[in-house]
Description:
CATH architecture of chain B: 3-Layer(aba) Sandwich
Largest sheet of chain A: none
Strand order of the largest sheet of chain B: 6-7-8-3-9-10
CATH topology of chain B: Rossmann fold
Helix content of chain B: 25-40%
CATH class of chain A: Mainly Alpha
Low-confidence stretches of chain B: none
Oligomer: heterodimer
Distance between the termini of chain A: 26 Å
Structural class of chain B: alpha/beta
Number of domains of chain B: 1
Mean pLDDT of chain A: 86
Shape of chain A: globular
Mean pLDDT of chain B: 92
Largest interface: A-B, 31 and 39 residues
CATH superfamily of chain A: ABC transporter involved in vitamin B12 uptake, BtuC
Number of strands of chain A: 0
Number of domains of chain A: 1
Amino acid sequence: MNHAISGRGGWRLWLPLAILSLVILLLALGLAVSIGEIAIPLSTSLKALSNGVLGTQFALNTMHEGIIWNYRLSRALVAAFCGAALALSGAILQALLRNPLAEPYVLGISAGASTGAVAVMILNVGYGVITLSTGAFVGAVVAFALVSALAAGAGGGADRVILAGVAGSQLFNALTSYIVTTSANAEQARGVMFWLLGSLGGIRWPDVYMAAPVALIGFFICMAYARALDAFTFGADSAAALGIPVRRVRLVLLGLTAAMTATMVSIVGSIGFVGLVIPHAARFLTGPGHRRLLPAAAMIGAIFMVLADIVSRIIIPQQILPIGVVTALFGAPAFALILYKARRPV
Amino acid sequence: MSISTKDVRWATAGTMIVDGVTIDVAPGRTLGLIGPNGSGKSSLLRLICRLRKVESGVISLDGVDIATLPRTDIARRIAFVEQQATTEAQVTVLDVVRLGRTPHRGALSPWTALDDQAVDNALSHVGMAHKAHQFWHTLSGGERQRVHIARALAQTPGELLLDEPTNHLDIQHQLEILSLVAGLPVTSIIALHDLNLAAMFCDSLAVLHKGKVVAAGLPEEVLTEALIADVFGVRAYIEKSRFHGRHHIHFHCG
């Protein structure tokens, strides 16, 4: 087993794998737009996509085409970008904090972003000038700063960071609940609670236009820092001794993580475990080198979220589960498995 | 002079850790830093490779103040082997040694034959070429230390800094690591605890005590019974070894 951390060898495998994963993602998207209360044949969906993207002229049922374009495709695309961004955030945090359990949800960053978003939504903080995603970003940064300070105050170390994350999540979830119960009316409260569990309901094209650039730009920034992330294998001092500008790398990548998490939380609510589990799955396939790990994590994250969304829509007839419930049902056992594997040898 | 420090000071949390240190190392020679726990050896090494910034004083590399050099330039010249650095990532020996090429590569520049050569040389220097594809977590303490040294050598440095490289190793591996380092064609500074090993393998020694250099020079000049009593607080008897010709220190207990 030769998992090369750098780019030598195996690049001839790279292109077919990239194309294969793209095909799987497209198939998943095709399934996602076909499956629903009104079932649309996969062939119709693929033709509709081809009509829209490639400009072909297949004759199709206009109602079907409308459902695909106006509702299901935007939803599926947001799921894909969201999964990719969360998986990238997890991979970055795991590398920078050298902690296999790090991810935005576990570290309380998602909870902070939720609080920020709820503050804007319900308390009307910023009087309409501050957008939902800006509020979420501020919340995410505050939460991360607080959790970092708590972890450092507790003496650092991988488990301290996780404990600080638990404390941070509890605090921000409590703040969110406080805001919702004291200031929201019944209708708002119901909407917010559903959104907090992670929900793709009500996603339209403007959400795609927000999620897509954040995920894509985020991906390219991560890739530019892939080698710097490799250099963190033995810690920050070791990275600095290899010539990595540690402070700048941390600032850029932690800021990016906060921005990606905040954007996705403001669109779909906080979705747990994707950022934790997907990077591990990707690492299992590609090895620890980030030049391969990051694209693989983004792709697998995207495919996983699209499939999770399908499951959330069909698992209970006539009812849609919040997608956060589905990811947690898959993610919590995987989290336990990672915890078990990461235990110290006695 | 390859590396020299002039009146270097560094404090943390209000305590002066490195207090006016002036040392010089000639090209290709091995300097041993000795001194009790907390005497400032590790901190001084971290200052020399600029992991920390000096509060006052100058550290220079071939006469150039390192404060004026970009971090990558420093990393191309000075390699640092930390004490006991480990990882939980599933990396192989080869992955780790390749990290040494980081300062020589741009963000997008591809891996070259030159990089390969540096990595292969480094691996065979430490005798780990046959274990290149083995995973890090399967290695023994001595092997990990050798891989760290190979990673440092892959940086093709002119200067090598090692922070207590023999800690937690058995005596066979201690001797193996130190003779390996002493035989390398680079200038090296090694922080060491074992005075006998320091006397055996270093060209010169600097003794640190409470952040200050209290003695520096050839091992046989520096290591005296009076100095050991002063700095380490133990009684010693020193003789020239009949076996290896270097000084050997016997310690009294009680």
